[in-house]
Structures are given as structure tokens and as C-alpha cells.
Amino acid sequence: MSGHHDHSHHHHDDEGLPSLEEIRRVLADLPGPDLESATAAMQREQTLLKPPGALGRLEELVQWLATWQGKAPPELTHPRIVIFAGAHGVAQRGVSAYPPAVTGQMVQAFINGHAAINQLAELHDADLRVHEMDLDHPTADFTQGPAMSEEVCARAAAYGMMAIEPGLHLLCLGEMGIGNTTSAAALCAALFGGPASDWVGPGTGVDSEGIKRKIAAVEAGLAANPTALTDPFEALRCLGGQELAAIMGAIIACRLARVPVVLDGFACTAAAAVLYKADPKALDHCIVAHRSAEPGHARLLTAINKRPLFEFDMRLGEASGAALTIPVLRSALACHLNMATFAEAGVSAKGEKPAGSVH
Ligand SMILES: O=C(O)c1ccc[n+]([C@@H]2O[C@H](COP(=O)([O-])O)[C@@H](O)[C@H]2O)c1
Ligand SMILES: Cc1cc2nc[nH]c2cc1C
Q: What does UniProt list as catalytic (predicted)?
């Protein structure tokens, strides 16, 4: 694995870390799109040797990179993949096909280069980092009350904000956390309403009894956390997990540092949806890589008005879907950077009179 593996320790000295209130204030003043870079990229695109729009969403992707890097042409030599791993109290309720210990074991697998994401990161020359969020201290079981204190949630969000720095060209976000599709389902139900069954699915592959336990856990979580319905950050604190709070923080930090973000599957998108609920423009610098096989993901994408790039029926998590966008983005960029213009190639433009034609 290139890059690091970090342990998030709980320090008592939290001075300097932003509180949820401060995160709320940052959100009120987010930088907008760089329209100058967007225009410059669009103008170049229009001269290139193809019918206008013929590269479809590849053109859209170059525009998006330019807009949110604030640079025309945009670059993609320094992409990073970050996985946040979190332990969920609700995982004790028989809501996953795997035991809670798998979260830490998979972190070890990421470190040893054994996981799917290691192969994709290596193939695409991306800097892969894994941040383990206090796995020895799972969040509280949210069916009994809030998963996290304000302090733990804010610290996790602040930790997520520190996972990037200006100069990165792209951040692919992913998660690892046994039980987190239940947490994400509860979060979605709190943010967007609807019955628990709208948001619950098989996750890692539970059977129909497991689905019933997941629905019951989501319903109990909403009943035990009435304040979750009053505010998106409160929903995250009550029903989320540390990896989800960290993803939220990383998304905000990327906006401030002009780093475009690629979101992965269901849990990752649910964490992002907290920001969407607080301000629908907060995810304008994010794309969603794929529509996960987890059935709630399609509904969630509709709720946050995002169209995924791929529908590959993946449901792995660990940023695997997000990593697949790197070669696609590079393909889009290679065309944008290296194609000739009509003039350079000596090709007639649309509607140009045939040479020697009589009018
Ligand atoms: O990315 C997805 O949409 C996705 C769908 C199902 C499962 N996962 C992964 O599986 C874990 C959560 O599943 P579960 O069944 O334990 O809630 C977590 O580590 C996720 O990364 C991921
Ligand atoms: C094996 C395994 C790998 C994963 N990667 C992300 N979530 C996961 C869940 C399991 C169970």
C-alpha cells in the first residue's frame, strides 16, 4: 500500500478542533464554482475534433474537474483514495453477515495489500490511505440512544478534514465498517423519511431474517433518537458512525481546498447526504461513482439529485467503485488535453461549405 495507515486516538486536548457548530458556520460560507476555469475548459472543448457533445459525460467530467480544482486545464496526476474504518455498536444486533471483528481484520488486509482496493489503487497509481477510527471503542448501539456524543462526532469530522491537503487533484472516498449499512439506512430514514424498509437491504449479504432485524434496528433507532429528525448533524451524531462523520468532514475540507471528490457506495453517500440536507449546494464538488447494488442507494441518489457514472452491481465498499473513476477521468482528460482542434487537423467544421462548392 502506498501512503499511510493512521490510528485515530482519543486525545483529551481537543483545542483547535472544529465543533459541529463551527462546521455549520463553514458550511454557510462554502466557496462556489470557479466559473472562469469552467468557461476556459468549455471553450477548448468546443474547438476539439468531434461533434459538439460527442464525448458525452466525459466532457462533463472535464468541466467538473476544472470547475472544482479551479484550474483549466485540470490535472489528475495526484489522486488519493481514503478509506475511513469505524466500529458500530449496532453491529451486535445480528444486522451483518459478518462479525464486527471483520472491520479491524479488513484494515489489516488493506495494510497488507490484500484487498480489492489495493489492486485498484496500485493499477491506477493512486495514493491509498486507511484511517482507522477508534475501532477499540465502537459507537453506542443507536437502538438505545445516540451512537455518539457531540464530542466524538465532532472529533471524527475534524479528523476527516485532516485527511487531505491542497494540491491533491482528486479524493476518492470510501468506508469500512461492519454494520454500517444499518447505520446508513437509519441516517437516510431520518434525513429523507419513508419507512425503514425503503432504506434497508442485504448489505454484506444477510438473509430475510437479517433484513427483518435491520428494519427493526432502524425503527428502534428512530424511536430512541427523536432529535435525529430535527437536524442533519444531529441525525449523523445519533445514527451514524465515526467513519461516516469523517467522510462528511473530508468532503467539506475538499471543498475548501479545491479538491474534487468522488463518492463510493451506500454508506459513503449517506454520510455525504448529511451535508446535502444542510445545504443542497454542499455536494456540488462531488460526483457519485456508481450505483451500488444496495437497494437504498438508488433512492438516496434520487434524494440528493446525483446521477452515478456506473451501474456495475458492486456492493463492496472500501472506495472500490470510486477508484474505478480514476481511469475514466484520465481518459476524459487525455482527450481534452491532446486532441487536435478542427483547424489543427485540417478537418472541415460543422456546416462548413464543401471546398470548391458553388453557391
Ligand atoms: O458500498 C456499498 O454500497 C456497500 C454495500 C454493502 C456492503 N458494503 C460494505 O460492507 C460493510 C457493511 O455491510 P453490513 O452488512 O455489515 O452492514 C461495510 O464495510 C461496507 O463497506 C458496502
Ligand atoms: C470481506 C469484506 C470486505 C469488505 N470491504 C468493505 N467492506 C467489507 C466487508 C467484508 C465482509
A: 318
